[in-house]
Protein 1
Amino acid sequence: MFDYEKLNAEIAGVFSLEKDQVQIGVVKILYPEIRSMMIETNFFKGQQRYPGASSFFGPWNYIGKNNFVRIKCIDSRTFNFEFQILSEIDLKKLNEQFAALLLDGKINIYSHSLHKVPRPLKQTPSFLLYVIKLVDAKIIGKEYSERVLKDRY
């Protein structure tokens, strides 16, 4: 009770978004090699949760897991893994970095999949600019952009 949830895994390496590449442990993937990439950020370490009646005696704090990355490369390599976020600042920073990569055109999301983007990413200013840029370029319509952004806050 009042403890952290269990990690139940081994921490295998570092994941980071850098200026010209994605670093996954010792593997470096340049942005032009990536066909599609999706990041889902959910929890950071120390974030409190309401355990509910059925798990009252369970842990009350997240350990920072249940954050996922899915990368498909042009050469058919795929990376699906879970990573740990250690603070709320790291969570916001990662979401903002990914949204900035979208805005710069380094990472592409298929326009018909924009509504599936996780809410924390939608809340970044860079994602809003990315959607506006797509509307201006007539890649997506205004009605679809409103649907994408409706659950922003």
Note: Residues 53 and 90 are 31 Å apart (CA to CA).
Protein 2
Amino acid sequence: MKKKKMSGKARAALAVGSLLGVAALATTAAFTDFANINLGSGGEGIGSSSKFDIAVVDTDDTVLQADTEAGVDWVIPGADSFVPGRTLTTTIPVFNNSKTITGDLSVVVEAIGDGSIGTSPNIMKFLKFSATDTSTGTVLFGDPADPTAGVDLASAEAEIADVAARGADSLAEGDAYVSGANGSEHTIELQVHFTDEPETADYNGGQAALRVHIDAQSK
């Protein structure tokens, strides 16, 4: 029997269909693979196991947390003989106790309660304040070169600076202080001047209850 001759268009159509069939067979035999990416390292995931923590270096070079509402006592030499015309100076080192987290620091001098101590006359209105970040040489408030020109209590506050991460394991309360990375410590030198004016004669035996509040915020 004589085969019927197909048109060129029909032959082309059959050829295309044949190629599609081969492609379908190849797809079913393709290789596969996959990748899972566990975010973080060492099974810790993301986040820091190092808590953000700001601490103080006590006068005996040990670590103080000072993070309770009651605060900690900070002895200032000469405070018990503070009379008009004199200036008290104290230095407070604060540091970032977090291994990996950086932050911002601010400082404010504030009254404890209404600033009075027992029945002693309250001398708060006669006090002037100045402060310097000695680690950077930055004047925070007042006039450290002339403490008599310091600011009143209401203006004794400032942003300090960025504080770098410690870059080493955190220290515990009572540990001997060991310096961390550059920029992880700031030292505040505070001056409190008792103005010498006639009215102070009526405040003989006067006192004032004050504290330095250092605030830290991670970033």
Note: The first strand starts at residue 54 and ends at 57.
